[in-house]
Write a structure and sequence with these properties.
Low-confidence stretches: none
Distance between the termini: 32 Å
Number of helices: 4
Helix content: 25-40%
Number of strands: 5
Strand content: 15-25%
Strand order of the largest sheet: 2-1-3-4-5
Length: about 160
């Protein structure tokens, strides 16, 4: 009731879900990447939905963008794959607290190296948006390890978001 004794209607604003919130943050942090071909982002959150760490794909700390190659093809030493830290790894490395029991939101499904980092650091769920490399062996190996370690995996789709 208002001051005049009349009934008032409370309007409740619809807010985004936690999944949408954290996936949006993963996309925003991905924009920090200087990789000319792929911008990936990841967000680690605890069981209370408190942000624990964020990361994007890039060089190890202290190395400037122009000091190493961003090439995708060629001799291994002359490609980005020899040097880049993936978003998922950086989200764990940058965590301000333990990642034990946390979940990780990723713009891309994690590769085998990131899967090892996820498993070893006690993360128990992976929520990913894109799975465009599903048929690549490194990503098949990742899925196998995550499944064997009983890590939950689910694809985020805003159309299925509640």
């Amino acid at each position: 009731m208002n001051k005049k004794g009349l009934k008032t209607k409370t309007v409740v604003r619809k807010r985004i879900s936690w999944d949408e919130c954290f996936m949006q943050i993963a996309h925003v942090i991905a924009d920090r990447s200087q990789d000319p071909s792929t911008q990936a982002g990841a967000v680690v959150v605890n069981e209370k939905n408190i942000l624990v760490g964020v990361g994007y794909n890039g060089w190890p700390r202290g190395i400037k963008s122009e000091e190493l190659p961003w090439e995708r093809e060629g001799d291994f030493m002359n490609t980005k794959y020899a040097y880049v830290c993936h978003a998922e790894e950086n989200a764990v490395y940058n965590a301000n607290n333990s990642t034990e029991g946390c979940k990780i939101y990723c713009t891309l499904f994690p590769c085998n190296e990131c899967a090892k980092t996820i498993i070893q650091n006690g993360i128990n769920e992976v929520i990913y948006e894109s799975d465009k490399y599903a048929d690549v062996p490194a990503f098949m190996a990742s899925r196998k390890m995550l499944k064997l370690a009983k890590i939950g995996m689910r694809q985020y789709n805003i159309n299925n978001d509640k």
